[in-house]
Structure formats: structure tokens, C-alpha cells
Design goal:
It is a single chain. This protein is α+β, with helices and mostly antiparallel strands and about 325 residues long. The chain has three domains: about 1-95, Orthogonal Bundle (Helix Hairpins), CATH 1.10.287; about 100-205 and about 275-310, Cupredoxins -  blue copper proteins (Immunoglobulin-like, Sandwich), CATH 2.60.40.420; about 215-270, Molybdopterin biosynthesis moea protein, domain 2. Helices cover about 30% and strands about 25% of the residues. The strands form four sheets. A five-stranded mixed β-sheet has the order 3-2-1-5-8. Strands 4-15-14-6-7 form a five-stranded mixed β-sheet. Helix 2 runs antiparallel to helix 3 (about 65-95). The two termini are about 55 Å apart.
Length: about 325
């Protein structure tokens, strides 16, 4: 039923349990919709005015409705006690040790996500509100010994696959909502609070991209979503010259050229399948508060960290 509901691809260890809860709740909602809708139609017909011109002030004398309400309450109790509470206990409250996880600070602001890594020493450096500037949005005090190796990025979160991630989430100004749809993570970032969020990515961004790649027909009307995707293969004309290179943005011009070359189907996928969204209206620039998650293999992640560290010594 997850596919029927249109749920996005799941790329986290706890995702299947979240999806299971969503499916079960929707089954309950579907039963209630059909059940109460049928009952409502029945009452409209059964107690129509032509059949009962005089009001019955005694009303219903049995307890059928009370029994039905009890059944619904019991099912809701099972969903809460049997599924929701255990899920919360194991996948939200049961945070793994930081020594076994990738630990990151994320500070939201209008309109960006500031990402702070502790560096090789594993200790976050000191921050000071008086040091905050456009060049130093975290207010990181580089004179602090623990801050000298800290890595800071804006709107870019890199993570290794298969390892728990612990995020200390906060906000500099208003309430934001940190949302990673493909990882089934959503948590409000509240000024004055540091809230822990954790999950385990089980697929790299490259693997997710391949799974989201589809073949599109360009023979007729151009699918609207195609204009926001990139080509996942190289396409050349009859002369051998490349018309659309792998990784290039698909445009109406490139599609017209492909058609002229006799190409009617192309493989395309999202350039950045794993994104950070703000799920809370946070101001006029809310629409551009968009970040990116890059889940890498452990080797790729180590290489990225090493690259970022090299910038600190330049």
C-alpha cells in the first residue's frame, strides 16, 4: 500500500517501520471513511421525513454506536501502544553512543542550513554569538583549540552510509522544520533549544539516484517533471557529436535536438535526490531554504573530510 499512497523511496534503517505506521493509519482511516459514510447514507434513507413525518423523541435505544466507538478506540489503542510507542522508544529515544556515530550540529537560519562537523578530534569548538557574521554564520571561535579543525558548510550535509548519524539541531532566529523525506526524518528546529535527531542511512545518494532514474518518452508532449531532471546517459547525433551529455540538465532545446536526431526516449533522474527541506513556513525566503544531503561510501566520506580539512590549512 506504500506505493499506492505515493510514499517516496525509503533510504533509512527505521524507514520501513515509519511506512508501516503510515499504512496502518491509512487502513484505519479508509475503514472509518467507508463505515461512517455507509452509516450516514443509511440514516438518510432509513429516517427520511416521508417515512417518519413525526419526530421520535425517544431516539435510539440500543448501544450499537457505543460498541462501534469502543472498537475504533481499541484499534487506535493497538496502533498507539503496539506500534507507535515501541517505534518511538527504539528509533527516537534510543540514541546510539556518539562514539559509534557521525555527529553533526545543524543550525537553521533564515534562509539556510549551517552544518558544523567537530573535525578529527571529535570535539565541537567554541561558538560565540558576537562572532557571527556572513563569513562565519556559526560564530565559530577559531582561536579555540578544539575549533581549529572544525569543518563548516552551508546547505551541504555529507554522511557515510551504514553508520548512525546524530544531529544536534537548533535555530538562530525563528522556528524551522528540518525535513529529510527520503530518510523519514522531520524535526522542528526551535530557537534556544538543541534537539537530537538520529537515523541511519542505508543507501548512498548515487544508489538512490539510480533507483529514481526512469526512461521518458520525448516523442510527444514533454513531461513537466523531465525539465527538472538530468540525463543519466550520453546521447549523440548521427554525426557522433554529443547532443546531451550524462549529468547535463534536460532542456526543451536539447529535447528538440534529440528529436531531430531520431531519439525518442531518454533516461533521466534527479540531480540531487537527497535534499534538506524546511517544512515550516519561516519567512518570505522560505522557498529557497533548500539544502542537500550527500550519502557516500565510507571511503568517499573520508576523502571528503580530508578535502575539507585541507582548506583549513590554506
Amino acid at each position: 500500500m506504500g506505493d499506492f499512497l505515493g510514499l517516496p523511496l525509503d533510504a533509512s534503517a527505521h524507514g520501513p517501520k515509519i511506512d508501516q505506521m503510515i499504512v496502518l493509519v491509512h487502513w484505519l482511516m479508509a475503514v472509518l471513511l467507508v463505515g461512517w459514510g455507509t452509516f450516514f447514507i443509511y440514516t438518510l434513507i432509513r429516517f427520511r421525513s416521508s417515512r417518519h413525518p413525526k419526530a421520535d423523541y425517544a431516539g435510539v435505544r440500543n448501544h450499537s454506536s457505543s460498541y462501534l466507538e469502543g472498537v475504533v478506540a481499541a484499534i487506535e489503542g493497538v496502533l498507539l501502544i503496539g506500534f507507535a510507542i515501541p517505534l518511538w522508544a527504539t528509533k527516537v529515544n534510543d540514541v546510539p553512543p556518539e562514539s559509534d556515530a557521525t555527529v553533526v550540529r545543524i543550525v537553521a537560519e533564515q534562509f539556510a542550513w549551517n552544518v558544523h562537523y567537530p573535525g578529527p578530534d571529535g570535539v565541537f569548538g567554541r561558538t560565540d554569538i558576537s562572532l557571527i557574521s556572513p563569513e562565519n554564520p556559526l560564530g565559530l571561535d577559531r582561536s579555540d583549540s578544539a575549533a581549529k579543525d572544525d569543518i563548516a558548510t552551508i546547505n551541504q550535509l555529507n554522511l557515510p552510509v551504514g553508520k548512525p548519524v546524530i544531529i544536534h539541531l537548533s535555530s538562530k532566529d525563528v522556528i524551522h522544520s528540518f525535513s529529510l523525506p527520503l530518510f523519514r526524518v522531520k524535526q522542528d528546529a526551535i530557537p534556544g533549544q538543541s534537539i537530537r535527531v538520529w537515523f541511519t542511512p542505508v543507501e548512498t545518494s548515487a544508489e538512490i539516484q539510480r533507483k529514481l532514474t526512469r526512461e521518458y518518452s520525448i516523442a510527444g508532449n514533454i513531461p513537466e517533471e523531465l525539465k527538472s531532471l538530468i540525463a543519466m546517459a550520453d546521447y549523440a547525433g548521427k554525426d557522433g557529436n554529443t547532443i546531451l551529455a550524462k549529468g547535463s540538465q534536460v532542456t526543451e532545446e536539447s529535447i528538440d535536438t534529440l528529436r531531430q536526431a531520431g531519439i525518442t526516449r531518454i533516461l533521466a533522474g534527479p540531480e540531487t535526490p537527497t535534499e534538506i527541506a524546511c517544512a515550516q513556513l519561516c519567512g518570505l525566503g522560505h522557498y529557497r531554504m533548500r539544502g542537500f544531503v550527500t550519502v557516500q561510501t565510507p571511503e568517499e566520506y573520508k576523502g571528503w573530510i580530508a578535502e575539507q580539512e585541507s582548506y583549513l590549512t590554506q
